Amino acid sequence: MVSPNSIQTYSKLIKSSSPIFSIRTVHLDLKGAPPKIEYFRQLMPFFKSLGFDSILMEYEDMFPYSGRFEILRTKYAYSRETIVEILKLAEDNELEIIPLIQTFGHMEFVLKHSIFEHLREVPSKPDTICPSDSNSTELIHEMLQQVRELHPNSKSIHIGCDEAWHIAQDDRCLHALNTTFHNLTDQLKLAHISSIAKYAKEHLNFEHVLAWNDLFDKIPVDLLNEYKLGSYIIPIIWGYAENVTTAGYFPPGMIERYSQVFNEMIFGSVFKGANGAMQIFVTIERYLSNLKSYLMLYILNERILNGKVMGTVLTGWQRFWHGIQLCEILPEGIPALVLESMYMKDPTLDDYELENKTLEFFNCERHQLFPISYNGKLYTPRKEAIYSFCEFPGSDVYALIEKLHLLLWKISVSSPELYNPLREEQKQLRNEFQQALKKYFYEDTVEEFIKQNIDSIIPA
Question: Where exactly are the structural domains of the chain?
Fold first, then answer.
């Protein structure tokens, strides 16, 4: 874990600001619990007040694709009119919407459909598209065109390109490896990434093309330069360990290599959704440690990174991948987002000062948290409970999640004969969640959250 003292010491070397926080982006993952437009109306001015410059919008199946791609749309996909309103809300609050469209890995929302399954790299795996089929390229281009049409003023786009778990296993790719890429999988990967980025930049006129960095984190400089990655993309260096400076966490020499290839880079930290696929409770300290360690990473490499790191994205994953259950939902992540934004404004603040700044931002008093006695046992509220008394977009859901935390503890310390009164609490909490969640999320999200986190918590 990053030492708080060493972080504060290094922070003071760059005074009360850091270039890695010059541009601040918040990531919204819409493949689970996508906000209703009513929630966006609260969130946009809220994000602006926190000092964010842009929103990285991972649409997946919520985008209103048309034509042969209409099949990709989920039941509650945004309409074109809703997208226009979201963009207007962002513009009114001086926020750029950066659309994120997966173009290599994490393409389950496309490749799960029978009409597109022939483009899978591995027939039984819908996550990775085959980059060696011209039909794959055509599909990706069409998707990007539709996104561009609805985002005429966006200067940047994110083309994904992370966690393509199955590469160079298909006959089409094996043939390309043998005939074109000298049997080097790295060349196959780079050819696809650079081709898509070039198309987004030169044909769709995006000024900046962003991509996750993990598919080329070990590739040598000469190959990165051969495929002109430095001209086409801005890599987001992402990883969610508590300390990303730990030896071996990032591949040896990665930062040095990137400094020779890319004039601009972005760091990818996190405010929710990176502590387990089944996690529903945010641990703020865990995510703050990650953000602090990115500052350490910059300071340790300032000689070669100076002037190259243009900002930081705070990612907020909602599912680990398409089809898996929800992890921490947005209201649960808001206090972490606020506290981390306070840190980005002044990284010299210690944890207690950051808590105070967050409470001040919420215009919320610090409540003392007392242990709760139940059946002869004591429940100690988690640190995050101090924010359950505050007001912010979705704060009623946050307070209910705190009640859920307590109920789960009660269940864990109770024997079956004591379950009946807890079933009454469960029923009441279910009704409260139903009323609160529907203000912010669509019916399918409400049903999924309750089924996942309320209905099955007491053994039959």
Answer: 4-353, 364-453
